[in-house]
């Protein structure tokens, strides 16, 4: 009797402390099953998927070449002009030119150009895909309910995890790097496009309806213009997140400031790491200030003063 | 002139998922509160029948929540009815297809809103062209037409300002110009002047009355303000809890309030500005030296008599022939609120 009791007690403690996990063999088979299914999928579709991304690769390579081949003085003028066009601030233009000169003087010009090209193409891609997706999301609560958790997932899953399937599918290279950056950076544009459209004043929308606007007219004359400040805040965040990804992108073979940082980490080169890291920060600050100032200008007439 | 009257017939609106289920209950006298408590539906409009005359100002009046906004939004079907008809030029707006409705809204109606509802990112003139832009009118023409109406409402020189640079009164003039630029037969105004302070409001009323003299549009004007209703309305309908409780001219309502609710409402009204001389005149006797045109208000008539020192006046029609007479005493008697109310 008593031995039975202690035995039962022992079993109970065991039951509570040891998690009732799958047997080792089953677990191995389970993981192997997933891996193999995906590997089969890769073998089956890898090439066509790669083919699908060829145009993207061509655009990226073309843009990189263009940016790298542009003489540096011309490039500085172009960038300064862009900064002025966006921010209308001479102070910011001066800061930008100074940073560019220092970065170039410290031997990082070409790497910076590669990084700029990657960020520009990634941002453009995020906008081209993200804004229509955000519009779609704003049109129906059901679409929103489906897309929101996907975006949450994309933003929170450690980026190394989705590097694995990307690597399996596309291998090492510029396109997988670009895709990894976009996956991480796209959620803000989508979210804020959706939010911006949903926040558009109901009274103004009603006025558009009352004057007989078609859904398309309403989108382009009322919803998008009024959502623009929010959309732009999304674009700003997207750029920042893309910049945050350049080191991770370097892991799968994207050249630029990120790959130098990676080299510095691997070899414990403190100076190299600090220099390239600071260059990334400088670019981030310029992008951020310019896009914020631009966003403010968009908003200029939106705030209501008279009730 | 074309008949641009609007005929609202047996219109019901019950807000909620299955409004049509409760029409019968409402017909049989279920109250708004009961409907909400028992079935979770809100009674918006109950059996509305109004003939809104062509080229006149129809005022719809009532307290907050009485269904005024709901009513006016049925005319351009921003709200779909639960039952009933809105007939304009022989067609039921409630039965129009999507495409027809869009055309109807573009060409037959224009609307002015309580909170202006201007596009904040557009200048005054770009706001004013909005309706024409949706219609696809070409740039030059829509700009010219917009400028014409901006001038008429007194906004010349402000066309390149943004709405948030203007005062409330000026913003609503933009709203009015935007609606007028559409040149639609129907002008819908939902508490268009309620957000403005009293002086500006009087100004806007004057502008509207001036414009209406040559516009001759069918205007549906919503207000919760009795003085505004009496000043603007050729016809007034009073709503309460979604039902029309009285309709007629301002004078008819002031002289014969249908119930104590309306009597309360009109207690403080300046009757001298509502009642017309025709109402109190007696048979023509022609013994006075001053004449007052038929249709004048008592206050105006009394003023003329006092100024000329006469105790009597002749009422004349538009061919200047006498059709009756009033005395100063009868005018003042009629202007004083009867004790009975
Ligand atoms: N979409 C809706 N869903 C449910 N109930 C509604 C809806 N719109 C209006 N109502 C209700 O219908 C009634 C009439 O509202 P309406 O807005 O027409 O009143 P109103 O006379 O215009 O009032 P106000 O002077 O405050 O503008 C109110 O009880 C309101 O709560
Ligand atoms: Mg209202």
Provide the descriptors you would attach to this structure in a database record.
heterodimer; A: 307 residues; mainly alpha; MetI-like fold; 15 helices; 85% helix; globular; B: 341 residues; alpha/beta; Rossmann fold; CBS-domain; six-stranded mixed β-sheet; four-stranded antiparallel β-sheet; 13 strands; 38% helix; binds adenosine-5'-triphosphate; binds magnesium ion
What does this 3D model show about the protein?
The complex is a heterodimer of chains A (307) and B (341). By secondary structure, chain A is an all-alpha fold. Chain A has a single domain, classed as MetI-like fold, CATH 1.10.3720.10. Chain A contains 15 helices and no strands. In chain A, helix 12 (215-244) runs antiparallel to helix 15 (270-299). The relative contact order of chain A is 0.10. The mean pLDDT of chain A is 90. Chain B is α/β, with parallel strands linked by helices and 341 residues long. Chain B folds into two domains: 52-271, P-loop containing nucleotide triphosphate hydrolases (Rossmann fold, 3-Layer(aba) Sandwich); 273-336, CBS-domain. Chain B has 15 helices and 13 strands. Chain B has helices at 23-27, 32-39, 68-75, 98-107, 124-128, 130-135, 139-152, 168-181, 198-215, 226-232, 250-255, 260-266, 277-280, 298-308, 328-335; strands at residues 6-15, 42-52, 57-61, 83-88, 91-92, 109-112, 186-190, 218-223, 235-240, 243-248, 291-293, 312-316, 322-327. A six-stranded mixed β-sheet of chain B has the order 6-7-8-3-9-10, sandwiched between helices. In chain B, helix 7 packs across helix 8 and helix 14 (298-308) runs antiparallel to helix 15. The model of chain B has no long low-confidence stretch (mean pLDDT 91). At the A-B interface, helix 11 and helix 12 of A face helix 4, strand 6 and helix 6 of B. Magnesium ion (MG) is lined by residues 68-69, 191 of chain B.
């Amino acid at each position: 009797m008593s031995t039975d009791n202690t035995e039962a007690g022992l079993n109970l403690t065991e039951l509570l402390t040891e998690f009732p996990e799958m047997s080792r063999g089953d677990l191995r088979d389970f993981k192997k099953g997933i891996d193999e299914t995906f590997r089969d999928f890769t073998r089956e579709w890898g090439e066509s998927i790669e083919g699908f991304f060829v145009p993207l690769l061509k655009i990226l390579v073309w843009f990189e070449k263009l940016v790298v081949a542009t003489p540096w003085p011309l490039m500085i003028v172009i960038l300064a002009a862009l900064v002025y066009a966006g921010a209308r601030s001479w102070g910011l233009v001066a800061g930008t030119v100074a940073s560019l000169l220092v970065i170039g003087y410290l031997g990082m010009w070409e790497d910076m150009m590669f990084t700029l090209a990657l960020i520009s193409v990634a941002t453009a891609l995020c906008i081209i895909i993200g804004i229509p997706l955000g519009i779609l999301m704003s049109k129906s609560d059901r679409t929103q309910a489906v897309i929101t958790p996907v975006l949450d997932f994309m933003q929170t899953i450690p980026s190394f995890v989705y590097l694995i399937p990307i690597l399996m599918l596309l291998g090492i290279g510029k396109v997988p790097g670009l895709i990894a950056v976009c996956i991480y950076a796209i959620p803000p544009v989508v979210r804020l496009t959706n939010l911006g459209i949903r926040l558009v004043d109901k009274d103004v929308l009603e006025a558009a309806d009352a004057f007989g606007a078609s859904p398309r007219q309403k989108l382009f004359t009322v919803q998008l213009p009024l959502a623009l400040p929010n959309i732009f805040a999304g674009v700003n965040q997207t750029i920042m997140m893309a910049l945050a990804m350049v080191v991770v992108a370097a892991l799968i073979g994207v050249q630029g400031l990120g790959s130098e940082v990676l080299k510095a980490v691997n070899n414990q080169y403190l100076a190299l790491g600090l220099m390239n890291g600071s260059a990334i920060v400088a670019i981030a600050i310029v992008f951020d200030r310019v896009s914020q100032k631009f966003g403010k200008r968009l908003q200029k007439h939106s705030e209501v003063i008279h009730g | 002139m074309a008949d641009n009257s609007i005929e609202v017939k047996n219109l019901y609106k019950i807000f909620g998922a299955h409004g049509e289920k409760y029409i019968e209950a409402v017909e049989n006298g279920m109250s708004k509160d009961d409907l909400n408590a028992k079935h979770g539906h809100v009674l918006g409009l109950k059996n509305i029948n109004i003939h809104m005359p062509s080229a006149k100002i129809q005022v719809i009046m009532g307290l907050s929540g009485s269904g005024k906004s709901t009513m006016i939004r049925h005319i351009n079907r921003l709200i779909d009815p639960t039952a009933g008809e809105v007939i304009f030029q022989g067609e039921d707006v409630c039965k129009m297809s999507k495409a027809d409705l869009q055309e109807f809204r573009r060409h037959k109606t224009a609307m002015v809103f309580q909170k202006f509802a201007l596009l904040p990112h557009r200048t005054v003139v770009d706001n004013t062209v909005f309706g024409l832009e949706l219609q696809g009118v070409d740039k030059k023409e829509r700009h010219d037409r917009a400028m014409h109406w901006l001038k008429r409402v007194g906004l010349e020189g402000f066309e390149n300002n943004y709405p948030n640079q203007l005062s409330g009164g000026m913003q609503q003039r933009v709203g009015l110009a935007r609606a007028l630029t559409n040149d639609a037969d129907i002008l819908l105004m939902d508490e268009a002047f309620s957000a403005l302070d009293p002086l500006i409001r009087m100004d806007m009323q004057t502008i509207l009355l001036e414009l209406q003299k040559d516009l001759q549009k069918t205007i549906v004007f919503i207000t919760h303000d009795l003085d505004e209703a009496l000043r603007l309305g050729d016809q007034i309908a009073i709503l309460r809890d979604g039902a029309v409780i009285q309709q007629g001219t301002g004078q008819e309502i002031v002289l014969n309030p249908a119930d104590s609710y309306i009597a309360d409402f009109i207690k403080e009204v300046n009757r001298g500005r509502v009642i017309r001389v025709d109402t109190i005149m007696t048979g023509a006797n022609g013994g006075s030296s001053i004449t007052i045109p038929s249709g004048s208000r008592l206050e105006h008539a009394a003023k003329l008599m006092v100024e000329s020192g006469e105790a009597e006046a002749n009422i004349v029609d538009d061919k200047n022939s006498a059709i009756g007479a009033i005395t100063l005493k009868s005018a003042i008697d009629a202007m004083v609120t009867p004790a009975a109310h």
